[in-house]
């Protein structure tokens, strides 16, 4: 069946790699990434949704089938230059839960997708700080291998 004219469809913006040089480090089990692990991202398109790709080049061993890596965010510059509390290994603040990447039980590179998911927002061109929590029983990224997170803004509109 063909998609009809004016039917609602998703439109995808340009993918952004949020990974910094810090993501060449490992992320142990049950550990939250720190703000320095991922760049802040500004939603310049004011897209209400986003899709995410988590790339894990290697694991310390195969994760259990169905184990997850959770994605959270905090809002940046919510009141002038004031931010929401920072998540991370030294904080109990949980931020906004966006969803979970489901890992395969393979000790190999994995490309895990999530979305589109609705983004929390308090302003036009909202800035975000993203965090991941490794809930697998193994370490993400080993040795010189790494993990990275990519975001793509998404909106819905009429099909031509």
- How many H/I helices? 0
What percent of residues adopt helix (DSSP H or I)? under 10%
- Which CATH class? Mainly Beta
CATH fold type: Jelly Rolls
Instruction: Report the end-to-end length measured between terminal Cα atoms.
Output: 16 Å
- The sequence of SSEs as H and E is EEEEEEEEE
Poorly predicted tracts of residues:
none
The overall pLDDT average reads: 86
Quaternary state of this entry equals single chain
Shape: globular
Classification by helices and strands: mainly beta
The CATH architecture category equals: Sandwich
Largest sheet: 5 strands, antiparallel
> How many structural domains are formed by the residues?
1
Strand content: 35-45%
**What's the total number of strands?**
9
Please tell me how large the radius of gyration is: 17 Å
Describe how the helices and strands are arranged.
Blueprint: E1 8-12, E2 16-17, E3 41-42, E4 49-56, E5 68-76, E6 96-102, E7 110-118, E8 127-134, E9 147-158
Antiparallel strand pairs: 1-9, 2-9, 3-8, 4-7, 4-9, 5-6, 5-8
Describe the protein.
The chain contains no helices and nine strands. With 160 residues, it is mainly beta. It has one domain (9-158): Jelly Rolls (Sandwich).
């Amino acid at each position: 069946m063909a998609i009809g004219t004016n039917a609602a469809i998703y439109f995808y913006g340009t993918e952004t790699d949020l990974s910094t040089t810090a993501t060449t480090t490992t992320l142990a089990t049950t550990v939250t990434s720190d703000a320095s692990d991922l760049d802040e991202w500004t939603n310049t398109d004011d897209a209400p949704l986003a899709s995410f790709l988590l790339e894990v080049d290697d694991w310390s061993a195969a994760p259990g089938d169905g184990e997850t890596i959770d994605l959270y965010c905090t809002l940046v510059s919510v009141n002038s230059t004031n931010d929401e509390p920072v998540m991370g290994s030294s904080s109990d603040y949980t931020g906004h839960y966006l969803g979970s990447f489901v890992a395969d039980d393979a000790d190999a590179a994995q490309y895990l997708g999530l979305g589109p998911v609705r983004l929390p927002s308090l302003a036009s061109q909202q800035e975000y700080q993203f965090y991941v929590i490794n809930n697998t029983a193994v370490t993400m990224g080993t040795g010189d291998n790494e993990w990275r997170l990519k975001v793509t803004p998404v909106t819905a509109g009429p099909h031509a």
